[in-house]
């Protein structure tokens, strides 16, 4: 199973953001046990400290932040904080422990939204955006577009087939699942599926 170190900023984004965005889908994939989250005391401390900041109080109230961190702590692979932070490998020295943790834990990937990490050329560890990472996991759906944005970031779009019972449409035609699902037209930036 894929093992990933996830930047606390991604976990914060999942906690306060749209559950259908990359960070929210990453936490859902973790909940569904589609990958193993690798954590350390420093990572969990940073996460909890950020969640308890006054500007996040509306999301963290009533113990929700502590419960979120406790859930992550309870079902993750724990590693010691790295002794050597290899700070020369990344622009922001505060990110160095994440790189060291991923390498020391022999993780498959480091997941981040941080440009300093995403742009870094790191030996021994891939750094992926949360949406790209979730798309690479088993059960992510079928890839129908891959490319690069104008900013140079990798973009992958997936679709998931939702099972439904056979039904009769408004014209009386029997629609069977999934044999009559087809692409009806290409649209700029995506595919319309009927």
Write a structural description.
There is one protein chain. The protein is α/β, with parallel strands linked by helices. It has 2 domains: about 130 residues, Rossmann fold; about 50 residues, no CATH class. Strands 3-2-1-4-5 form a 5-stranded parallel β-sheet. Helix 1 crosses helix 2. The longest helix is centred in the N-terminal third of the chain and has 11 residues. The chain is globular. The two termini are about 35 Å apart. The C terminus is likely disordered.
Short account of what is shown:
The protein has 194 residues and is α/β, with parallel strands linked by helices.
Could you give the topology of this structure?
Layout: E1 3-6, H1 8-16, H2 22-31, E2 36-39, H3 41-51, H4 57-60, H5 64-74, E3 77-78, H6 96-104, E4 109-111, H7 115-118, E5 126-128, H8 130-136, E6 142-148, E7 154-159, E8 167-168, E9 174-175, E10 183-187, E11 190-193
Parallel strand pairs: 1-2, 1-4, 2-3, 4-5
Antiparallel strand pairs: 6-7, 8-9, 10-11
């Amino acid at each position: 199973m894929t093992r990933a170190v996830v930047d606390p900023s991604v976990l914060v984004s999942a906690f306060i953001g749209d559950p259908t965005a990359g960070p929210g889908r990453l936490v859902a994939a973790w909940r569904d046990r589609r990958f193993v989250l690798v954590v350390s005391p420093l990572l969990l401390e940073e996460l909890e400290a950020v969640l308890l900041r006054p500007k996040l109080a509306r999301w963290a109230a009533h113990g929700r932040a502590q419960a979120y961190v406790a859930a992550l702590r309870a079902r993750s692979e724990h590693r010691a904080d790295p002794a050597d932070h290899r700070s020369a490998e990344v622009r922001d020295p505060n990110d160095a422990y994440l790189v060291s943790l991923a390498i020391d834990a022999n993780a498959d990937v480091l997941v981040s939204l941080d440009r300093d990490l995403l742009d870094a050329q790191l030996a021994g560890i891939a750094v992926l955006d949360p949406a790209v990472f979730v798309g690479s996991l088993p059960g992510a759906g079928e890839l129908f577009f891959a490319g690069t944005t104008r900013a140079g970031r990798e973009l992958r779009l997936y679709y998931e087939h939702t099972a439904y019972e056979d039904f009769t449409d408004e014209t009386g035609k029997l629609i069977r699942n999934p044999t009559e699902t087809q692409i009806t037209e290409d649209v700029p930036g995506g595919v319309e599926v009927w």
